[in-house]
Each structure stands twice: as C-alpha cells, then as structure tokens.
C-alpha cells in the first residue's frame, strides 16, 4: 500500500505537468488581464475624481496668490461706467492675470491665465485666454477656454447660463461686466466662435464681446462638439469703487440712466 | 503570478498581507502621480479648445 501510493501521485503529477504548464500560462494570463482591468478602473477613478481634487487645490492656491478681490455685498459700487474702459496690456504666456466670476454658478471664481495650454493652464482649473483674442474691455472678442468635466471642471454648468446673465472679469484693478446674449453647440473646428465679431470672421468689430468655449456634451468626449457662450460688454468700474452690483445679485442701472 | 509573489514575501501571513497592501498603495500612487498623467496626454478627451490640434495651443495667427 505504502509502496504503491506514490506511484499514482507521481503519475498524476506527470500527466498534470503537461496540463500544468498550460494552466500556469492561462493562470498568469488571467491574472494579467485582471490587473489590466483594475488599472483601467483606476484610470477612470483618477480622471473623474482625482484630477478635480488636484486642480481645485491648485485653483485655491492661485486665487490666494493673486489676491483676487472677493465680492462684498456690503461694499457695492454705486456708479457704473459705460465710457471707454481701460484695457490691460497683453501679459506673457502662462501668466495668471485676472479672475473670472460667474454669479449663476454660485458665485464661482476662476483664475484667468494667458494661453490655452492644456497641461499648464486648463488642467489647473484655470480659464485660458486665447492669446490671439483681445484683452477684456477692448473692442473685439475676449475669449476663454475651460474644462467642462475633470480637472476642476470650471465650466461644468455652462448650459445653466441664461441670456442676460452677468459674466464678470477682474483684471488690472478693473471690473468688466458682460452679459450673455447667445449660446450654441458647435463642431470643434468652428473657430468663428472666437472671431473678433463672433460668427462673422473677417468683419471689423465695433463692440466688446466675451466668449467662453468648453467641451460638449458632458462626458469624456470632447471629440463631438464644443459649447460656446457669447456675451456683450455692459459696464465697467474700478475695483476700489466697490463690488459691481451684478456680482451680488443686484441689477445695475440700465444704460440710459448713466453716462 | 500573485501566488509566486505571496510565496516570495517573508514572514507570517499577516506580515505578507500588510506588505501586499503597502505594495498596492505604492502602485496606485505611481499610477496617479506619474503613469496616468502621462497616458492622458495621448487621450483625445477633455480638449475644450475651439480647434482640433491636439496640443491645445492656438497659433498666434488669425483663426483658420
């Protein structure tokens, strides 16, 4: 009994070694595939969650660093100006030079940097200024790009904007208040959205515009379309005169009342 | 593969489990901080620019 017992074991072992090699390979392959699946899952977690965490942290630091003025309901400016606004000189590439305020998005504040580099600017929860477009307050189309999803998703709620909503820019000690007048989804190559007169490339501008561009639709597919918000300049005021009424939910006197 | 890793680790079972946890955490960290940002450069997602070039840089010339 004891002598015969090892024989079937050895026999089984030998027969198994052919199968054993195959099953070992299949086993390793299976483990590799499981590992790949876990890594892909991790990538999604990183893209959809961690990039927001990181970018929001950077954004908060940048806002603190540039000492962006915080809207103050106690200190609302009484005189809005509709004459020729001061225009800041174009800053160098990558420079953070202003702040974007959208009251409709729960008073969200976003730093504005020069250029639309993805890694250095857009992925840091900042709005990127298309360098070939004018600075805020100038005649022409001041245009900004920002993420719709991931990396701080600063323009996530872009479709909640309504015509007439204020979009406020602070740069060089001046508030510039624009009002939304047009929204539209376009193909990614429709650059006429940021033409000096939006949608009319080649036309000489006489008015001051602001344009936001972002991904559309929500989802990881910026391949499909872009969402465009066009706004028109309404008024400006120096930062030392207080907070623009539109930033704290009040309405500025209409154009007829001033000037 | 993971069986071999388990056998290669020293110590009693709870030490090995702990070591595996530390290793897994290190792998996740390496992925989040280094591998995924690198991979995302080659992904066509998340380009909010109004232009199709992948770099996201807009030429200084007038728009095409």
From TrEMBL, chain A:
Species this protein is from: Cellulosimicrobium composti
CDD domains according to UniProt: Sortase_E
SUPFAM superfamilies cross-referenced by the UniProt entry: Sortase
Cleaved signal peptide residues: none
Identification of the protein by name: Class E sortase
Gene3D superfamilies cross-referenced by the UniProt entry: Sortase
NCBIfam families for this protein: class_E_sortase, sortase_fam
Origin organism lineage: Bacteria, Bacillati, Actinomycetota, Actinomycetes, Micrococcales
GO molecular function: hydrolase activity
Location of the active site: 147 (proton donor/acceptor), 215 (acyl-thioester intermediate)
Transmembrane regions: 21-46
Keywords of the record: Hydrolase, Membrane, Transmembrane, Transmembrane helix
InterPro entries listed in its UniProt record: Sortase, Sortase_Class_E, Sortase_dom-sf, Sortase_E
Keyword ATP-binding in annotation: no
Automatic annotation (TrEMBL), chain B:
Transmembrane in keyword set: yes
Transmembrane segments: 13-36
Keywords per UniProt: Membrane, Transmembrane, Transmembrane helix
Name of the protein in question: Uncharacterized protein
Origin species: Cellulosimicrobium composti
Lineage: Bacteria, Bacillati, Actinomycetota, Actinomycetes, Micrococcales
């Amino acid at each position: 009994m004891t002598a015969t017992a090892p024989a079937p074991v050895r026999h089984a072992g030998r027969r198994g070694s052919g199968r054993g090699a195959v099953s070992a390979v299949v086993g390793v392959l299976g483990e590799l595939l499981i590992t790949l699946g876990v890594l892909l899952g991790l990538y999604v977690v990183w893209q959809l969650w961690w990039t927001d965490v990181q970018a929001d942290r950077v954004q908060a630091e940048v806002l603190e660093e540039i000492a962006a003025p915080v809207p103050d309901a106690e200190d609302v400016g009484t005189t809005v100006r509709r004459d020729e606004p001061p225009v800041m000189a174009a800053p160098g590439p990558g420079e953070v030079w202003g702040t974007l305020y959208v009251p409709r998005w729960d008073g969200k504040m976003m730093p504005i940097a020069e250029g639309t580099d993805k890694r250095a600017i857009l992925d840091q929860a900042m709005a990127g200024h298309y360098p070939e477009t004018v600075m805020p307050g100038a005649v022409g189309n001041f245009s900004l790009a920002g993420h719709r999803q991931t990396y701080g998703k600063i323009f996530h709620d872009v479709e909640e904007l309504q015509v007439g909503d204020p979009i406020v820019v602070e740069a060089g000690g001046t508030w510039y208040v624009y009002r939304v007048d047009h929204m539209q989804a376009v193909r990614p190559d429709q650059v006429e959205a940021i033409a000096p007169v939006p949608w009319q490339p080649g036309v000489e501008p006489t008015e001051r515009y602001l344009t936001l561009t972002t991904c559309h639709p929500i989802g990881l597919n910026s391949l499909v379309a872009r969402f465009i918000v066009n706004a028109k300049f309404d008024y400006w005021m120096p930062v030392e005169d207080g907070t623009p009424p539109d930033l704290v939910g009040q309405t500025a006197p209409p154009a007829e009342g001033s000037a | 593969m993971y069986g071999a890793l388990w056998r290669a680790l020293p110590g009693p079972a709870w030490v090995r489990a702990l070591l595996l946890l530390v290793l897994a955490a290190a792998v996740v960290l390496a992925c989040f901080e280094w591998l995924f940002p690198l991979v995302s450069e080659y992904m066509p997602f998340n380009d909010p620019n109004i232009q199709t070039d992948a770099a996201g840089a807009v030429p200084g010339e007038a728009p095409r």
